[in-house]
Amino acid sequence: MNLEERHDEQLMALIVQQSREALEKLYDRYSRAVFSLAMSLLRDAGAAEEVTQDVFFNVWRRGASYHAKRGKVTAWLFSIAHHRTIDELRRRRREQTQVQHGVDLTNKPSKSVEGDPIEYANNQYHRSQLSGALSTLRPEQRDVVVLAYFGGFTHTEIAGHLRQPLGTVKTRMRLGLKNLREVLGPQAPEQADYGVY
Amino acid sequence: MECIEAEHRFESYLRDELDRGQTKEVDAHLDSCRACSVNLRADGETVASIAFSVPQLDVPESVRERLFSRVDHDFGPTEAAPSPGVIQRIRSSLGRPMAGNWGPVAVSVMVVSLVLGGVWINGRLGEISMENQELTGRIDWITSENQRLQASVFERDARVQSMVSQTRYLSSMTASPGVSVSLLRGGDLWPEAWGMVACCAETDDGLAALIAVLNLPPLPEDEAYQVWVITKYQHLSVGLLNVDSTGYGQAVIIPGVPFVQLDGIGITVEPAGGSYHPTGANVIAGDM
Questions:
Q1: CB distance B52–A33 less than 8 Å?
Q2: Quick check: A195 pLDDT over 60?
């Protein structure tokens, strides 16, 4: 069986054994999505490229930390990608750096990171195809999901901004993700082409 | 652990951000709670869904090149495969190429060794430099002392030569026929002093006598030994006498009167330059 036909978990097992070819295959499958996720949040091609490179290098070095019982490889991979992207977003926020528009998209560049965080996060998610799905959520759930996934704020920061208990924020996050999942349905190509778990 | 607490940790758990203790707690809960296990997997899929829901963009080829350049130069993963036994770990480490596992360690050890070695060498060089300076100083002092001792030896040598020539002259004079020798004795001031007078020799200036003294201490600059010849009626000065550091002094005296008229000879301590009459203590004297 060649690498093309291997499931993601089989590729991960080979990556743990230092198989460069297996990493290349995983990169070919998901680099576009990782880069696009980073680009949608950072609005900076250079930064998104760095995030993409770091994510897959992290997969190479920490492949052994993936456990099948935690979920699919894509869940683990994109959790790392999202976390890395949010790290970069927070770093820029600390440096009060204005995010530059790096590629030719139809969307307009976002505003500076200064100003109201909800407005900033809203500007981010409005530019994604998720806007329709997110609009189906209850406002309090949407606010938390948008602030976390598009604004890069921690649960504690969200709790402080919304003046809600931390536990309430976490609960709303869970419910919002659950409802969002039901609206979005399966999206990852892996589930269609590489075997459904 | 309750489900609500486990659910609150799902996001961090997915990102492998929990510490070992918290991870074990979540693992244990997931093993026992199917609902949470299903929810965890679903949350992870939601994150993936978000990623695929944004506009999909092509990744520049340079990203791939940079990534695999890092991979090709990487020394190995930061985490070993989960739960290998001790013996298995040892076996697998022995089987792997050195550069894969021990490269970073070896490089780190080498760098640390080089740094420590450089620090030690630098310190030692500093010590050697200080020792060198100290030795140079000591050599300079020894050289200076040597020169001083040589000068002292030359001075003594010259003095000895002078004493030898004087002694020869005195000996030759005393050995000459018709020469009489009179002894001189020290006074109360320096009783150990003594001398002799050898009389007489014919010179262009008249008859001359030779006086030699021993054990007379050198005088300060404002004083001088003065030699007197004593007649029945007066003391006549016949000159000043210098003594060396050993207390030896010698001089040729020409009294200016016939020696048969001399009763005695003596030496006193006078002011520098001498006196018209004896004023100081009589340090040595004798009959003629």
A1: yes
A2: no
Q: How many residues does chain A have?
A: 197
Is B45 in contact with A72 (Cβ distance < 8 A)? yes
Closest-CA distance, B109 to chain A, in angstroms, reads: 22
- B194 forms beta bridges with B185, B214
* CA distance linking residue A77 with residue B230, whole number of Å: 132
The 3-state DSSP class for residue B76 equals coil
3-state secondary structure of A51: helix
> Is this structure's pTM higher than 0.90?
no
How many DSSP H helices and E strands does chain B contain? 8, 8
Q: From first to last of its 288 residues, what are the pLDDT tens digits of chain B?
A: 888 788 778 777 776 677 888 888 888 888 888 888 887 777 777 778 878 877 788 999 999 999 999 999 886 555 444 444 555 555 555 555 545 567 788 888 888 888 888 888 888 888 888 888 888 888 888 888 888 888 888 777 776 776 676 666 666 666 666 778 889 999 888 889 999 998 877 766 677 888 999 999 999 988 999 999 998 888 899 999 999 888 889 888 888 778 788 889 999 999 998 998 999 888 999 987
pLDDT in tens, A53-75: 999 999 999 888 888 877 889 98
Among the partner residues A130, A171, A178, nearest to B53 by beta-carbon distance: A130
Mutation target for B interface from A70, A72, A110, A127: give the one with most B CBs within 10 A: A70
Calpha distance A127→A108 (Å, rounded): 8
What long-range pairs does A22-28 form, CB within 8 A, spacing at least 24?
A23/A56, A23/A59, A23/A60, A23/B68, A23/B71, A24/B68, A26/A56, A26/A59, A26/A73, A26/A77, A27/A56, A27/B64, A27/B67
| Chain A nearest C-alpha distance from B21 (Å) | 15
Nearest Cα to A124, choosing from A185, A44, A47?
A44
CB contact, 8 Å: A37 with chain B? yes
Residues of B in contact with A52 (CB under 8 A): 59, 63, 67
Give the residue on B whose Cα is nearest the Cα of A181: B46
Q: Which two tokens stand for residue B255?
A: 């009294």
B interface mutation test: which of A181, A183, A194 has the most B CBs within 10 A?
Answer: A181
CA distance A4 to chain B (A): 18
Chain B contact present for A136, CB below 8 A: no
